């Protein structure tokens, strides 16, 4: 039996068992497609999360007030640390010498009611005081208008940048909010920019946020005491350890921490948050492999069943042919 005859015999077998052949091809195709689809979906989720949390890059670190536990151990009361002040944060920005981008921010409230004309929001708007670097550090993009100027930050301009969802609530779908006025706590703000839609994965809903100059936020707080947050992005990631050491020294000098005493502030490397996120996405990937393996296992069992039936029938056919005198 030559090669051409073998091919013809194979085609006749396929035609004779067309349904079985189609099912076999479908099992292989569905199994491979399911595995590729699951792994692609996991990669897509990981990419989306990484994009949304781009501010957690490995080249940045955060400085903020040290948490006071307010408890006692072994009869000794825990030391109470003073919160990070606006003047201290501003001084740090001026004295930190390495090439970097430093954002300064403070959350004023997450229960604000913002008005524009006769329209007003529910009391759920996040009002954030920040400097001009906050937009870039947080990975935000301005869809309309512009960012704060240095003059507006330094002199407390009554200007605001609003989120996409907040703009839709006050202005509808089509009207531009730029160069209009909104009010919060009786204070009028000129809208100079609208943020591109970001979504809410972390605790900050940027789409329902109003950002104002940090000095104005401090004035509105009226001595209530804001928690100021510094985010330092280093130009050269290879200098991260050196930069964190210098930042610690600069802040200890500003805070007048005594030699040998622990820091009166928290300094956290954003890479640790990024690593935590990476562990979550790795778990998703392992789950995807598990689902893909189960899918392939089910497809393989079905395929083996079909092949077993085919081999059994083929064995019977070969026996009949040999009985009739056929030779290999």
What does this protein structure show overall?
It is a single chain. The protein is of the alpha+beta class and 328 residues long. The chain has 2 domains: 96 residues; 181 residues, no CATH class. The chain has 9 helices and 14 strands. Strands 1, 4, 7, 8, 9, 10, 11, 12, 13 and 14 form a 10-stranded mixed β-sheet that branches. It has a two-stranded antiparallel sheet with strand order 2-3. Strand 10 and strand 11 form a beta hairpin. Helix 2 runs antiparallel to helix 9 and helix 3 crosses helix 8. The mean pLDDT is 83.
Which consecutive residue ranges, at least 5 long each, have pLDDT under 50? none
Mean pLDDT: 83
What percent strand? 15-25%
Instruction: Report the order of strands and helices.
Output: HHEEEHEEEEHEHEHEEEHEHEH
Radius of gyration: 32 Å
By DSSP (H or I, 4+ residues per run), the number of helices equals 9
Largest sheet: 10 strands, mixed
* Intertermini distance: 7 Å
Secondary structure tally: strands = 14
Helix and strand content put the structural class at alpha+beta
Number of domains: 2
Helix content: 40-55%
Characterize the overall form.
elongated
């Amino acid at each position: 039996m030559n090669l051409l005859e073998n091919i013809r015999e194979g085609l006749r077998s396929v035609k004779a068992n067309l349904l079985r052949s189609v099912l076999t091809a479908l099992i292989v195709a569905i199994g491979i497609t399911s595995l590729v689809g699951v792994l692609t979906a996991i990669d897509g989720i990981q990419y989306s999360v990484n994009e949304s949390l781009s501010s957690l890059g490995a080249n940045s670190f955060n400085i903020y007030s040290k948490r006071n536990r307010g408890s006692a151990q072994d009869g000794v009361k825990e030391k109470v640390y003073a919160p990070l002040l606006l003047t201290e944060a501003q001084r740090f920005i001026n004295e930190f010498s390495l090439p970097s981008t430093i954002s300064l921010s403070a959350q004023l409230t997450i229960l604000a009611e913002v008005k524009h004309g006769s329209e007003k929001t529910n009391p759920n708007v996040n009002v954030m005081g920040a400097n001009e670097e906050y937009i870039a550090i947080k990975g935000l993009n301005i869809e309309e208008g512009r960012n704060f100027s240095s003059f507006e930050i330094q002199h407390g301009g009554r200007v605001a940048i609003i989120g996409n969802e907040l703009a839709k609530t006050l202005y509808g779908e089509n009207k531009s909010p730029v160069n209009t006025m909104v009010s919060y706590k009786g204070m009028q703000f000129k809208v100079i920019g609208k943020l591109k839609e970001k979504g809410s994965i972390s605790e900050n809903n940027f789409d329902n946020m109003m950002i104002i100059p940090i000095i104005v936020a401090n004035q509105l707080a009226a001595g209530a005491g804001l928690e100021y947050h510094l985010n330092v992005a280093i130009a050269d990631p290879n200098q991260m350890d050196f930069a964190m050491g210098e930042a610690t020294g600069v802040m200890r000098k500003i805070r007048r921490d005594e030699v040998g005493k622990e820091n009166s502030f928290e300094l956290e490397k954003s890479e640790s948050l990024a690593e935590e996120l990476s562990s979550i996405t790795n778990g998703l990937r392992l789950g995807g492999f598990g689902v893909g393996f189960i899918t392939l296992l089910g497809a393989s069992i079905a395929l083996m069943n079909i092949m077993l039936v085919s081999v059994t029938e083929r064995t019977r056919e070969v026996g009949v042919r040999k009985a009739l005198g056929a030779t290999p």
